[in-house]
Design goal:
Helix content: 10-25%
């Protein structure tokens, strides 16, 4: 693949920006048709467009429903399309306006939260109005999130749509808590970079043509894959608004080094993705209003946008960036990427001055995060292999929670460092020698990425594990074979201070399922260990039971609620496979293998994901 850094710049003329009515109408009764609000909003949209064009960048103009009733907004879009090649697209954000409220009698504005009947009606209204104004249907659309049923309906009814903004990365309980528990939009667990969503679930990429929903999806904002994961995503993204909200700028000079570093780290992802890297900015006018926002005056809001666009413009002049419209990008992506090709990101801290490093991997079967500060432990795992159908909105079981469920999630289910008794979710290993135990989660390391054919390899720097009278140098390697729905993890004893010593290695995975911090009912889970001839089974009853088997070929958990089968396997006949049921205070399950290792020996296990029948 040619070495390409692509940016999508998406503007939307939101006539009634989500949070501007309260600001411009301060002290007045709510009136979303207020002239001052509409005029200011359109002025900001014009400003954003002119800043992009001044820097030689083309945009995608996502018309909102409200803007389709405004002649000036429509004429502006047509003029910029003619003059600059901007794409005229359609956003499903910005629904609220007098006309919408009168028809639907609601203040809801998130398209995925409506009933399916209303979703269809709204889509037909909005697409119909767009066609009335422009004489054609859009090729691109978007929202903060678009559920599979919505995407499938749009694609069936408006087949020309080829690209959509379809999820907001890690916008779940963390975002909810930092919005004073008031932002009821949960959509954790999706990709952070463009993907082809499956018909079954937008978060889970399609594995083949049969699963292809027919669109290329892009994320709503390119976010910091470390700061955003550890904290609130709304503070860490390539939208200048995020950086201002996070107060990450020089308060004296109003410079934004973090923003440029973040864009550069996205450019750097070409190393891990066959020479291709992507970045996006998706903005409405509401954040740049004249009254200021996030303790920032209008002048600072404006400067942040001018500086950000100037940086993209400079990269384009230097031949280091391609600006594309959404429809152009969808064509490029379809041409260059295969269904099973994974998205990889070896991401480092660029904000807090730590050496922390995460590795993110996403393909049609899984999304995985490994944390080098915890010895390469897997700290987030989403089983896309299940392609879980998860209807969202009024009239479904998930009115507000669109997240893809996890098996492992250290932020919501404790991870290695738990407060009290019990265990958190993590995939790691422990070494034991003469009664002393060390978990690799305590061994900080660094990782190096390589690719051999269709396999992506993560090689971790060796760690020294010190027991009372023995030092062990151990190296971990992780193999992600494209299309396999498995992760191979290899532990290699490079040297021991006593070459004749023998240590016990315990490869384990503590897991559960859910989308929030709150425990789900585990009673339907079945744990088994088998050697092919015989099988031992535990039906989960919170009784703290364990089973093990020498020579087990596989240790398995089946979780009917998320239609997922997860297993660990190994090819070593001497290893002992085990399964553990949790208890009410620690509602997890554990799969693992123990084996004895000597100097220079290697032990490999596979973590396998499949849809449970």
């Amino acid at each position: 693949m040619d070495n390409k850094f692509i940016v999508n710049i998406i503007h939307r003329p939101e006539m009634v920006p989500e949070y501007a009515e309260k600001v411009t109408g301060h002290g007045k009764e709510e009136d979303i048709g207020r002239k001052a609000l509409l005029t200011e909003s359109l002025d900001i949209f014009k400003t954003q467009q002119s800043i992009a064009h001044k820097n030689g960048l083309k945009t995608t103009i996502q018309m909102t429903y409200a803007s389709l009733f405004n002649d000036e907004a429509v004429e502006l879009a047509k003029a910029d399309h003619e003059k600059y090649g901007d794409e005229i697209a359609l956003s499903l954000l910005g629904l609220p306006c007098k006309e919408f409220r009168e028809k639907y009698k609601t203040k809801d504005f998130c398209i995925w939260m409506f009933s399916m009947e209303d979703k269809k009606s709204i889509v037909d209204d909005v697409f119909g109005k767009f066609h009335d104004r422009f004489g054609f249907y859009p090729e691109s659309t978007g929202s903060y999130y678009m559920d599979a049923d919505l995407v499938n309906y749009i694609k069936e009814k408006y087949p020309m749509v080829k690209c959509a903004v379809a999820t907001c990365w890690e916008e779940g309980p963390k975002a909810y808590h930092t919005c004073n528990n008031s932002w009821y939009t949960f959509m954790d667990g999706g990709p952070w970079a463009p993907w082809i969503p499956s018909k079954q679930n937008v978060h889970a990429p399609a594995a083949n043509e049969a699963e292809d929903s027919g669109i290329v999806a892009i994320p709503h904002l390119s976010r910091d894959l470390l700061a955003c994961y550890d904290g609130n995503g709304s503070n860490f993204g390539t939208h200048p608004q995020n950086v201002l909200r996070g107060m990450i700028y020089d308060s004296k000079t109003w410079d934004f080094p973090y923003l440029y570093n973040l864009i550069d780290q996205y450019r750097d992802l070409a190393k891990y993705n066959n020479g291709y890297a992507y970045n996006m900015m998706f903005v409405g006018p509401g954040w740049m209003n004249k009254m200021g926002r996030w303790e920032a005056p209008y002048e600072l809001l404006l400067k942040s946008y001018e500086d950000g666009m100037a940086y993209y413009g400079q990269l384009k002049k230097e031949g280091k960036l391609d600006d594309m419209t959404m429809a152009e990008f969808a064509d490029y992506y379809r041409e260059k990427r295969t269904f099973t090709e994974p998205e990889c990101a070896l991401w480092r801290d660029i904000l807090y001055g730590s050496d922390k490093q995460l590795f993110w991997y996403c393909d049609p079967f899984m999304r995985v995060c490994a944390n080098m500060d915890q010895g390469g432990a897997i700290v987030d795992l989403r089983p896309y292999a299940a392609k879980l159908e998860w209807p969202v909105g009024i009239g479904t079981k998930h009115v507000t929670d669109a997240s893809y469920p996890f098996l492992i999630q250290e932020k919501y289910r404790a991870g290695y460092f738990t407060h009290y008794a019990g265990e958190g979710t993590v995939r790691s290993a422990k070494l034991t020698y003469k009664g002393e135990e060390v978990d690799l989660c305590l061994c900080r390391t660094k990782a190096h990425f390589s690719q051999e054919g269709k396999t992506r390899i993560l090689t971790l720097d060796p760690v020294d594990i010190e027991f009372y009278d023995l030092t062990v140098k151990l190296q971990t390697k992780m193999y992600f074979e494209e299309g396999s729905s498995a992760i191979k993890i290899e532990r290699n004893i490079l040297e021991m201070s006593d070459p004749n010593a023998e240590v016990e290695l315990n490869e384990y995975m503590v897991a559960c399922y859910g989308t929030t911090e709150y425990s789900e009912d585990m009673s339907n889970i079945t744990l088994t260990c088998t050697d092919g001839a015989s099988t031992k089974e535990i039906k989960y009853e919170y009784k703290c039971r364990e089973e093990n088997m020498q020579g087990a070929t596989e240790v398995v958990a089946v979780i009917p609620e998320i239609e997922t089968r997860v297993s660990l396997s190994c090819g070593n006949k001497d290893a002992v496979g085990y399964i553990k049921e949790g208890y009410a205070f620690s509602p997890m399950f554990t799969l693992g293998y123990t084996t004895k290792l000597k100097d220079k020996e290697v032990f490999a296990t596979w973590l396998n994901l499949a849809k449970a029948n």
